[in-house]
Structure formats: structure tokens, C-alpha cells
Design goal:
Elements lengths: L1 H4 L6 E3 L3 E3 L1 H8 L16 E5 L2 E5 L10
Antiparallel strand pairs: 1-2, 3-4
Length: 67
């Protein structure tokens, strides 16, 4: 954004003239929710849907969220 108009702006510029602050959007989406689980400091290699359930898989393709 700064290159285009000289104004520093964190986030993503959307071509229709809006911006999205990725940090704020991520924090909002990851707030506590009964159907979401956060797994911090973990690498996921793949996201896969099986019979209506989504699983994160590690580099050896073992599910991270099977508990």
C-alpha cells in the first residue's frame, strides 16, 4: 500500500478499495468457540475431510486432532 499511495498500512489491500488487517481478522476468527480447537506450535502438512469431519494431518499423515 505504501508503494501505491505513500501510506503505510498493515494487512491486505482489496482491489475494490478496502483493506483487511490479517492480524485482527485472525484473532477474531480464533476466539473461543465451542466447535473450534486451537493447536498451537504445531505444524500441519495437510487438511482433509473424512465423512463430514475435518482433520489436520502431520508430515507423516497422522491426524493431529484425534482425541
Amino acid at each position: 500500500m505504501e508503494k501505491l499511495c505513500g501510506i503505510s498500512q498493515s494487512g491486505v489491500w482489496i482491489s475494490r478499495g478496502a483493506t483487511l488487517n490479517l492480524s485482527d481478522a485472525t484473532k477474531d476468527m480464533l476466539r473461543k468457540h465451542e466447535r473450534l480447537t486451537c493447536i498451537w506450535n504445531t505444524q500441519a502438512a495437510r487438511l482433509e475431510e473424512r465423512e463430514g469431519v475435518w482433520y489436520l494431518l502431520n508430515s507423516t499423515l497422522l491426524p493431529l486432532n484425534m482425541w
